[in-house]
Design brief:
five-stranded mixed beta sheet, alpha+beta, YaeB-like fold, 89 residues, RelE/ParE_toxin_dom_sf, Cytotoxin, 5 strands
Length: 89
């Protein structure tokens, strides 16, 4: 049986998430299901960020989120439009 990773939401992630339109929140919920089962799921298009121990993944063409994997947890860091979702703005 596969072991699912436990999502942990940082305060900054929660703040950014609450500002998203409902439609985008629903899309993220779908992606979160894939993430906890298999962070390499093709729909996520997850890739390791250069120079840091973080990953980025897609919600859709314009929106991203970042996360770290520690032990059996996924720590969700940022979410939003491309640069915001990658923690750049």
């Amino acid at each position: 049986m596969a072991q699912f990773l436990k999502p942990i939401f940082t305060p900054s992630f929660n703040k950014q998430y609450k500002k998203l339109p409902i439609k985008l929140q629903r899309k993220f919920t779908k992606q979160l299901k894939y993430l906890v089962e298999n962070y390499r799921h093709p729909s996520l298009r997850a890739k390791k960020m250069e120079g840091v121990n973080k990953f980025e993944a897609r919600i859709d063409h314009h929106n991203r989120f970042t996360f770290q994997i520690e032990d059996s947890q996924i720590i969700l860091r940022n979410i939003g439009p491309h640069d915001t979702g990658l923690g750049k703005k």
